[in-house]
Task: inverse folding
């Protein structure tokens, strides 16, 4: 079966459907950050979305198209934020959720998914292990599978963040998001191609998990298994629908190092007073390294999430900061 | 000479004067925080103000009333944020600034003031040492003194944050700010008394620097010298005009421990994804401890600033966070 590739109309329909069910997140700026990069940068703060990440948009876009009476149980696998989003969306819709999650995910994310009322099923890291576990459960329990990224409803939902950003901020010349499975960059590209035809759409990826970069360069979909990156939301490999959108609608994919990711988290905390998770810091790091294009441009960046495990942050353990 | 006590009209005039010169900061909410305290809490994000703190409002309100030709040089003493604000406001107005600053202030604040173009004069901690140094300089150089809090123009300017919050969020039952010298709580009380007559105005103070608490309870203005609190913005003692407003317009002053302050910083980072400085965390800590009143209320909190020295935050030094 040929997978259905979503289009701009799907993103617009998702935005109309999501309406009051999501947070219309603020767009923030920082003169200090602009001075660092020599550009005017507009940050779409999806770290302030319900559940602390853009993933709630896609998950809710799927669940609003399901009837809770006929489909009381949904299931997914997720490195964290999608599972959290699906759990929260299921609760809001009166449905139950099962989340298959790799053991090496951030503890704060696992705890949040449990708190949101989902049943957790732990699995080994890597996409093959996740899919195997999912299949085992689906063989026993009838549930609607909500894939974290390779689903046209998910991609369309994720695209609504860029839709809002582009509607609010005119004349952007570049828009960048992180690339994991490719739901966010795919939806963003769909929104951008119509709303801002001349814009450059740039995916940003950890060099340690550069499956999309390799796929984009080679023209063939490639994957990496359990990559060693701090950006725990970007360890998955690009999906089928997502690669098709990447190939046809995205202008470039750039990579950043692990040290650049951590430095970018710090810069955002310093300049914008905002906590972002490592995955979110990837396009910020690309901007700081000058990899989103020449100086002087108007740049939009989707800050994808803010779920960081603060238990690992010594200065906040109660010892004082001096 | 009897000091002039500002009134509500001064706050309204300041808001009109400040207009486009300041950031109209966002009001943020967090369901997770609301669940912790059993209240609906609205955070006025002055950590996102120009210079990273509410202090820019007061400083700019003074400088917009001075003629840069006739008054090319301004001077102040400040534990950090007021000095930074005055330096930035002076630069914006084409004036020069001298800032007398205690040696024990946060390094990030001193660096920011220098970067903003002010001349730095270091002094020993404590209000008497600051005032002595200021007098020495004023004896040599003619400059307009812009006191950090005991000035009716400063108090009126600081009140514009609460004016915005109360105009945007109806039916608040409590509003709380930190208390250092008393510029913010004084201006807030002026705005609240007219815009929200039944509201309770509560000042929050570190127990280690409880001069306003003691003053409020005893009915006599008291001071503390070089108090040992992590909240470096609140080490000064309450001013003359500020005490008068505290006595007549504020409903209560509550205190919090140092551990409660640090814990509150972490909670805000976790729930709101926002970095706030220790001084800002003081009313948040009071809310978390239930000291702002019973559950079920609508509470406004002014997050006064976000200038934290990230060099002291190990997980952001580039070591990775896992």
Result:
């Amino acid at each position: 079966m040929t997978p259905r590739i979503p289009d701009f109309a799907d993103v617009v329909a998702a935005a109309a459907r999501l309406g009051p069910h999501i947070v219309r997140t603020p767009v923030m700026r920082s003169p200090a950050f602009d001075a660092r990069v020599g550009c005017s940068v507009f940050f779409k703060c999806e770290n302030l979305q319900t559940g602390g990440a853009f993933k709630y948009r896609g998950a809710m876009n799927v669940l609003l198209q399901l009837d809770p009476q006929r489909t009381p149980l949904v299931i997914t696998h997720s490195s964290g934020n999608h599972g959290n989003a699906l759990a929260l969306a299921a609760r809001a819709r009166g449905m139950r959720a099962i989340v298959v999650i790799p053991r090496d995910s951030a503890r704060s994310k696992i705890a949040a998914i449990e708190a949101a009322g989902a049943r957790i099923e732990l699995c080994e890291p890597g996409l093959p292990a996740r899919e195997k576990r999912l299949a085992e459960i689906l063989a026993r329990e009838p549930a609607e599978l909500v894939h974290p990224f390779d689903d046209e409803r998910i991609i369309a939902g994720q695209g609504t963040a860029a839709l809002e950003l582009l509607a609010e901020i005119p004349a952007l010349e570049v828009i960048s998001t992180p690339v994991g499975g490719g739901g966010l960059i795919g939806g963003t590209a769909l929104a951008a191609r119509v709303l801002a035809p001349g814009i450059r759409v740039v995916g940003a990826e950890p060099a340690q998990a550069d499956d999309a970069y390799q796929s984009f360069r080679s023209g063939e979909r490639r994957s990496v298994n359990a990559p060693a990156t701090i950006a725990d939301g970007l360890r998955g490999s690009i999906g089928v629908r997502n690669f098709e959108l990447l190939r046809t609608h995205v202008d470039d994919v750039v990579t950043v190092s692990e040290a650049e990711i951590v430095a970018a988290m710090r810069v955002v905390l310093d300049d914008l007073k905002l906590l972002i998770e490592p995955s979110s810091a990837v396009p910020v790091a690309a901007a700081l390294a000058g990899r989103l294009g020449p100086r002087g441009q108007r740049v939009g960046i989707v800050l994808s999430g803010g779920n960081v495990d603060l238990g690992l942050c010594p200065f906040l353990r109660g010892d004082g900061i001096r």
